[in-house]
Amino acid sequence: MKNPMKILVAALSIVAYTTFTSFVSLDTKSTADCGTYNTQLISTQAIDLNTEWIWTVTNPNPGNGTLCTLQNLSHWNLILPSCVTNANIVSAAYSLDGNSWISLPAQIAVDPSSTCYGGLVLKFDQGTNGNAPTYYKLVTTGGVVPGPVAAVFKSGSRTGCHTYADYAVGPVCSDDDGGPR
C-alpha cells in the first residue's frame, strides 16, 4: 500500500504545483532584457550654414509592455554634450511619413516627465504607434558634427523610462566625446 500512497501524494503535489504556478506571472524579463526602441540617423545635410538631422524611431516589438513587448513610445530625448546649447538649436519637427513635418518645441531643458534622467535634454515630444516609424528632424547651427549621444525613452507605465549611453548619433562638437551633460 505504500507505493500507491506515494504515487497519489506525488500526483496531488504535481496538480497543486501546476495550479499554483498558473497564477504566477510569466513576465519575468525586465525591459533591459527585451531590447529598446530602434533609433537610426538616416540623414544629415548642410542647409546654408545649418545642419539638418533626421532620425527614425521604431518599436521593434509593440505590445502592452508584458512578455518582452514595448508600449508605444510617448516621447524621446537626446542628451547632448554641454557644447551644444539652445543657441545651436534652430528648429525641431516630427513626421509620420517622412514628408509632412509638424513643428515641435526646440529647447534644451529638464524633462520632468522623464524620471530616469534629471539632466538637460532636447525633447522630441511625439511618440510611436505600433511598429510604424516616426521621423524626427532637428536643425542646428554650424559647429557641430555627428557623434555618439545618449538617449532617453519614455513610454507607458509598464515599460517606463530608460536612458541609454552612446545610443544614437547626434550633434556633438568636433572636440567633444558626446558624453552626458
SSE arrangement:
Layout: H1 2-21, H2 31-34, E1 38-47, E2 50-58, E3 75-79, E4 89-95, E5 102-104, E6 108-110, E7 120-124, E8 134-141, E9 145-154, E10 161-172
Antiparallel strand pairs: 1-2, 2-8, 3-7, 3-9, 4-5, 4-8, 6-7, 9-10
3D shape = globular
The CATH topology name reads Immunoglobulin-like
Low-confidence stretches: 5-31, 177-181
- How many individual β-strands? 10
Strand content: 35-45%
State the order of secondary-structure elements, H for helix, E for strand: HHEEEEEEEEEE
Describe the oligomeric state of these chains in a short phrase: single chain
CATH first level: Mainly Beta
| Secondary-structure arrangement, i.e. CATH architecture | Sandwich
Mean pLDDT: 83
Q: Sheet bearing the most strands, described?
A: 5 strands, antiparallel
Structural class: mainly beta
SS element count, helices = 2
Helical fraction:
10-25%
Count of folded domains: 1
Please state how the strands of the largest beta sheet are arranged side by side: 1-2-8-4-5
Please describe what this structure looks like.
By secondary structure, the chain is mainly beta. It has a single domain, classed as Immunoglobulin-like (Sandwich). 13% of the residues lie in helices and 40% in strands. The protein has helices at 2-21, 31-34, and strands at 38-47, 50-58, 75-79, 89-95, 102-104, 108-110, 120-124, 134-141, 145-154, 161-172. The N and C termini lie far apart (74 Å).
